[in-house]
Amino acid sequence: MAADLPMSPQLEQIHGEIRDNFRALANGFQRLDKIKDSNRQSKQLEELTVKMRECKRLIKEFDRELKDEEGRNPPEVNKQLNDEKQSMIKELNSYVALRKTYMSTLGNKKVELFDMGAGVSEPTADDNFQVASAMSNQELVNAGMKTMDETDQTIERTKKVVEQTIEVGTETAVQLKGQTEQMGRIVNELDTINFSIKKASQLVKEIGRQVATDKCIMLFLLLIVCGVIAIIVVKIVNPNNKNIRAIPGLAPPAPTRRLLYLRDAEYFN
């Protein structure tokens, strides 16, 4: 049937490449049944996965070319070409399902179709394109409603997370404000203590200077008193010393007993 389809040279080339890949996939899965080693089976599955990716790319290219030529083809031809595209998509999906069966058997879930080598991932837009092409209108509506419900649930969860984040941020801001005010009070108290320490230091310096001045004055007075006492002692011990001047206001030294005796003797003679 595909050989009887009226195709442009470009569409015919793409269609031929797709069919070649499908034949390679069929032969590959047949050889897979004969492989007993699990590592070799995994490697074979990876090679088949590459082929399926190539088929997917070619089907997309076939679809683009078909849309470009849609205006130049009769409606019957466009319908036949679209049916062929759907047939190729279903055939590719059958190989995808077969690959998943082998993957579950091997217990190897590292390689996923259309994941671009990123490991297990969510379905991509290309997967959705293939699946949607094989779905009816009602199935598409149901899938769209389900996606909308999941989106609404995600939005609600996001709103709750945002609200919780705002509450945590508000509480953190209040705590930070209180800590800032407390730090301000501590800084003010430290400034007051520093000012008091400076004033006390200046007061201690002033007292020290005053004490030093008082000590000097007392020492000077003590030296004067000691000098006066020394002079008095010298006058008493040696009253005939002419080198020592009499201290004003100080009475002359009392005469010795011998002088008094001589005076009395002269008087009675």
What attributes characterize this protein structure?
mainly alpha; 269 residues; single chain
Helix/strand layout:
Layout: H1 9-34, H2 38-69, H3 75-106, H4 125-133, H5 137-237, H6 257-268
User: How would you classify the helix and strand content by structural class?
Assistant: mainly alpha
Distance between the termini: 192 Å
The Cα radius of gyration reads: 60 Å
Major beta sheet summary = none
Q: Helix share of residues?
A: over 70%
Mean of pLDDT: 76
Please tally the helical runs, counting DSSP H or I stretches of 4 or more residues. 6
Backbone shape: rod-shaped
What letter string, H or E per element, gives the SSE order? HHHHHH
State the total count of DSSP E strands: 0
Which regions have little confidence, pLDDT < 50, spanning 5+ residues? 108-127
How much of the sequence is in beta strands? under 5%
Account of the 3D structure:
This protein is mostly helical and 269 residues long. It is built from six helices and no strands. It has helices spanning 9-34, 38-69, 75-106, 125-133, 137-237, 257-268. Helix 2 packs antiparallel against helix 3. It is rod-shaped.
